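Contributing new records

If you add data, match the layout below exactly. Sequence lines come first and carry their own label; structure lines follow with theirs. Keep one chain per record. Anything else will be rejected by the validation script.
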Amino acid sequence: MAEITLRATAGRGIGSSESRRLRREGQIPAVVYGHGMEAVAVAVSGRELRAALSTDAGLNAVLSLQVEGNQYLALTREIQRHPVRGTVVHVDFQVVDPDEAVAAEVPVVLVGEALAVAHGDGVVDQQLFTLTVHATPSQIPTSVEVDVSELTIGGSIRVADVVLPRGVVTDLDPEAAVVHGAPPRVQVRDEGEGGAEAGAAPAGSAEG
């Protein structure tokens, strides 16, 4: 996985008013930490950040973070967004070692066609949409593919059945289901309506 260069400016002020000023100027407040270094408050360009994280790797993109003449290998660990507008308000970058494994969340992508499930009017029920893996930064996959071609109704594909790329491991429960072949969903008639009609007196009948 190629490194993506992202520039950051150190020495930003701390506080909500300073953060608002930065965001008005198109900058995103951020912090760089990890691997024995003291946390450093920085700011990055919102436009450059979007470009850096718009590749297939997403948040797992390996960044070459340039901070005032210093260069750090980093991963984006947390993005905070405005609760209403959804805009990015703060970012955490973790410095990593290229030779040390780190944990990362990668999306699970289903491939193939579960014909046995489809022919039985069943449902391909995905249980896990991300998988926590451990790998060196350059070996973090953009996604993990799970082939559902052999899936049957009542069957499951477990974590243990997933083929991971070389150098990538997971410590999730190997028996946990990633995807399940669910039986057809039966629609139950509303007995309340039917019961009301059944209990009604026939038209034209006399009482008593």
